[in-house]
Amino acid sequence: MYAGLVFAGGGNRCYWQGGFYETVAPRLDLKPKRVVGASAGALAMLYTALGLGHYVRERVCEACLGRSSEMDWAGFRQGGRLFPVGDMYHLMLTDLFTRERLATLQAQADFRVAISRPPRFWPLPVAALLGIGAYQLEKRLRKPVHATAGRRLGFKPDLIRLENCAAPDDLIAALMASASVPPFMPAGLVGQRAALDGGLVDNAPAWALADMEAAGEPTLVLLTRPVSAVPQIANRTYVSPSQVIPVSQFTIRNPEGIRFAYELGIRDGEAFLRSLEAKARAV
User: Which string of DSSP letters, residue by residue, matches the chain?
Assistant: First the structure.
């Protein structure tokens, strides 16, 4: 039914996408040709395609147990990262993406991971600070579905195609870069060039499906925040959570919020299916 899918970024809110996709995909027999994801949405698009949603959620929720802080001061004093979420994310990616699973994904669809390239000759710490600051400010003031501040600053969009990943390490580097939000997540390096969170250019990179839409092929964009209005673009459908998801993007101590996001995705997926059935009956 949909030839292209977009998984927007959103950190832990992206577990909503897992619940929605797992509910809707079997009923609609979704077999998209191209799937694009940014930040944690890029991970969500891949583990849902592999049918590993339950495993990922349980592993993450288990890792949250017993944690009272987002920071690891003891590890930091010994030379580790202050925010352990980045190392935890990398460890999970290394466990998930074997050579066999990469081959499975490459044979299934044209998956693309969105990253942002900072302006050339900018020191990376400056680029990260300005890019993330501009993104957050625009989000708070304008609440756009598609951000524009990053492009105006000179950030460039880039896509890493899974078919060009020769080994799991290439995919893991792309996923880490797509979620790169210092100091929470480390800066990325892809193709010997610096890379930051794909959401700094556009958190919902539907631009990567524009050629399909222009050719008359329908696409579906999975957002991770409730929105009151979306752009009206031919052949594009947006879906979003029906309420605010009570979990912060990078938290590693809120398993209840992660489960809530997933369960809300299931409910919203069922509501979406009912709306499609109602439209079909009205025709």
Answer: --SEEEE---GGGGHHHHHHHHHHHHHHT---SEEEEETHHHHHHHHHHTT-HHHHHHHHHHHHTT---S--HHHHHTTS-SSTHHHHHHHHHHHH--HHHHHHHHHH-EEEEEEEEPPTTS-HHHHHHHHHHHHHHHHHHT--SS--HHHHHT-EEEEEEGGG--SHHHHHHHHHHHT--TTTSPPEEETTEEEEETHHHHSS-GGGGHHHHHTT--EEEE-SS--S-----TTEEEE--SS---S-TT-SS-HHHHHHHHHHHHHHHHHHHHHHHHHHHH-
